[in-house]
Amino acid sequence: MRWAPHTLRGKSVYVRINADGQPVTDERGLVDVVYKLAPGAKLYRASARNLGPAAGDAVEADLGALSRAPERNARKPSAAGNAIAPPPEDAVIAYTDGACRQNPGPMGIGVVISDAGERREISEYLGHGTNNIAELTAIARALEVTDEMRQRPLYLYTDSSYAIGVLSKGWKAKANGELIATIRAALEGRPVTLVKVAGHAGVPDNERADKLATEAADRRS
């Protein structure tokens, strides 16, 4: 594994990085952190947004069997009592985001779809409306463009609590009923897992979807 020096809340740490030298983040924006490069060191999980720069070069280090420290903000179980399982190898991954200037105002959507190493990106201006409409429409577009793969698992990540609530938690919607009904119909019969991801937390594809959405909204604002 490769590790690079960083600071975490003022303390010196090493963070696991990828081949491009970037911290390896999970869908929640968390990274692997150790305080010392020594075999058997305790492994911590920290939010990428709390990292700061530090002097020093990245190093390759075999730390052996690491002892994982308990997470302070571990994912809570779902209503069914089970945490969301990691995507299977054959899953299609989609990150969606919506943006709105002034809310209501010019709307844009961003969608990033990954399938077996291939990526597709969508940046689309929607017209005038609300942020919630943009968030829902981004999800609808992801379902639409992956419809030909509807027999395969689709893990759809969004940072919209509203979208997760009205689509999978039984929230009663006071607006956007027709759009919500359309999405619910598109979800029927498909193995889709909706996942809430932290927004602006350094999750690469979530950040990319956000950029695509804001660029689309800015084109007409």
Written account of the structure:
It is a single chain. It is built from four helices and twelve strands. The strands form two sheets. Strands 1, 2, 3, 4, 5, 6 and 7 form a seven-stranded mixed sheet that branches. A five-stranded mixed sheet has the order 10-9-8-11-12. A hairpin with a 2-residue loop joins strand 1 and strand 2. Helix content is 22%, strand content 33%. It is an alpha+beta fold and 221 residues long. About 5% of the residues have low confidence.
Q: β content, as a range?
A: 25-35%
Distance between the ends: 45 Å
Order of helices and strands: EEEEEEEEEEHEHHEH
The largest β sheet comes out as: 7 strands, mixed
Going by helix content, strand content and strand pairing, the class is alpha+beta
State the helicity in percent bands: 10-25%
Counting DSSP E segments of at least 2 residues, the number of strands comes to: 12
Q: How big is the Rg?
A: 19 Å
Features:
single chain; 221 residues; alpha+beta; seven-stranded mixed beta sheet; five-stranded mixed beta sheet; 12 strands; elongated
How does the SSE layout of this entry go?
Blueprint: E1 2-8, E2 11-17, E3 30-34, E4 42-47, E5 51-53, E6 59-60, E7 67-68, E8 92-100, E9 105-115, E10 118-129, H1 131-145, E11 154-158, H2 161-168, H3 177-187, E12 192-196, H4 204-218
